[in-house]
Every structure is written in C-alpha cells, then in structure tokens.
Amino acid sequence: MSNKLRWGVVATGGIADVVTGDLRLLPDVEVLAVSSRAVPKAEAFAAKHGIPRAYGDYADLLADPDVDVVYVATPHVQHHAVTRAALEAGKHVLCEKPATLTLAELQDVVHLAHERGLFFMEAIWTRFNPLVVRMTELIAEGAIGEVRSVRADFGFTLEHDPEHRLWNKALGGGSLFDLGIYPVSFAHLVLGEPETVQAHGRLVGGVDAEIGMLLGYPDGVHALLGSSLVSPLKSGAVVYGTRGLVDVPEALYNPSRIVVNGVEHRHEQEGAGYVPQLREVVKRVRAGETESPSMRPAESLAILRTLTRAAERVGLTYDDVTVG
C-alpha cells in the first residue's frame, strides 16, 4: 500500500460525483481510477475530478493492481455482482446502500470479505454524522431517560416514470430500499433489531410507491417509520424517552442540527457530508481492520432483515430481478 490509500470509483452517477468530491478532501487519499460502461462518461468524470485512469468496464478497474479500495455506486441491482468481483480481486469495498437487495446476496459478500480478510462496509453515512454520534452518546448517558418510541420518515414526490431508477423494478426501484433504509437504520441505531415488523403500503409497477412500518420491541417499545415517492414526508425523526426527547428536525440522513430536551446542537459539515464516513474507511483499512464498529456487516444484515420483512408484508420482492 502506498503512502496514500488509492481508490477506484465504479459508476459515474450523481452520488459517485458527490462522494468523489469528498474523497478528494482527504489528504491521505488518491482517487486513482473510475469506470463507466460508457467510456466518454468515465473520461469526463475523470477530467472533472483529476482522476488519472478511466476505464470502460469495472472489470478493468478491478484488475488495476494499484487500486486499494473500491467505492461501488452502481444501481442497487448491480451492487452484489460488483462487490463480489471487487472482493475476489483483493480490493477493500465501500458499497452504497442498500449493499444488496437480498439477504442471500449480502450473506455471500459478507462471508467472502471475511474469508479474504478484506474490509467491507455498507455506505450509510448517517452513522458517521457527528450529531448522530452525539445523539447516541446522550441517549446512552440517560439524557432522555428510557427510550419508548421512535418516529422517522423520508419521502418526496417523484413523477411516475417507469424508466426512472426509483420506479424501475429491474434497477431495484421503490421507496423502501432507497429511502426507507434511512428510517429503518435510524430505528436500529436507537433500538436495535425489532421482534416484529408490520407494514402497509402500495405497489406501482412492482415497486413500493409508499410504505408505513411498525417495528415492535419488548415491553411495548416501538418505532413508526415511513417512506414515500408520492408524498413529501417530513424527512426527520424524533426519539421519545421517559424524561425527554431528541428531535432531528430535518435531513434525517445527514442532520445539521438536533434538539435534545430543548437544547439545540449544531455542527459544521465537512464537504458534502460524506467525509466522516470516508475517513472511517481509511482509518480502518490503514489499521488492517475488516469492518467498522459503527457500521458492521452484522448491522447491515440486521437492517436488511427488517427491510425484507417489511417488503414481504406488502408483496415486494427483488428475487426475480437480481443479477449475477
């Protein structure tokens, strides 16, 4: 490994563009390569971000011996295939959420990463947001007493277009796995994996346009969660305790402020907000570790179990669209 950790970016869409911008803010990182099925797109992306190597196929990027870590930013349905190939090529992996669409796929890549001794993490940046970290500390210290319930939502209106990735089942579309993963992950962070999962929603073209979830825990503790592509849900969260509450007023996925028992907490965001997550990957890979304690593969599996249970309640499945 060189003095700088060398990254390869697979795909050139909007999320890849923003995350790559944040990667370049880290002094001990070099974004060495990018791949896209369309070579001109890879070349344009490389020129924009000062990336020296552009490939037309992710297999070529994975064959580059100088790439240490791969960031997977393809459509959801391709995550498993690209992640598995990267691990087989001996690369550490940061994969956008959801890491895979099925439990079998996620179990496969988690096992492979463990077998190869490679770092693997699902990119749920919320877990590394300084205010979210502080929130968990305050809750653990008893600032709001015993947590009794969580409310969390994430939704917006998106005109129905069967070709758009969020409405296209063949691309892993729907609100639950793209947006609902944030409220579910938030509930898991505060309460852990639920005993029961209830859900009610509506399918359009085989994907969920909206879904509401009730997660049940012992002694009546619960979480009410929602995601939608047809309603502008308040994309925030509230954690209710026996002696107070934590309010995340907006941007549940990347809050810039939280209010704990009436006291506001703020932080200055680094870059577009992905820097803390990316710094964590660098730290763990440099240390020879294969996972982050803040977002372990076991946690990704637990979150996906909950998502899968909710999906089954509304008749949503991706088993028939998964690619190898």
From TrEMBL:
UniProt keyword annotations, A-Z: Oxidoreductase
GO molecular function, one term: oxidoreductase activity
Gfo/Idh/MocA-like oxidoreductase N-terminal domain sequence ranges: 5-121
Name of the protein: Putative dehydrogenase
Residue intervals of the GFO/IDH/MocA-like oxidoreductase domain: 133-245
Source species, domain of life: Bacteria
Keyword Oxidoreductase listed: yes
Source species taxonomy: Bacteria, Bacillati, Actinomycetota, Actinomycetes, Pseudonocardiales
Name of one Pfam family that matches: GFO_IDH_MocA
Assigned protein family: Belongs to the Gfo/Idh/MocA family.
PANTHER family membership: OXIDOREDUCTASES, TRANS-1,2-DIHYDROBENZENE-1,2-DIOL DEHYDROGENASE
Residues making up the signal peptide according to the UniProt record: none
Record-annotated membrane-spanning stretches: none
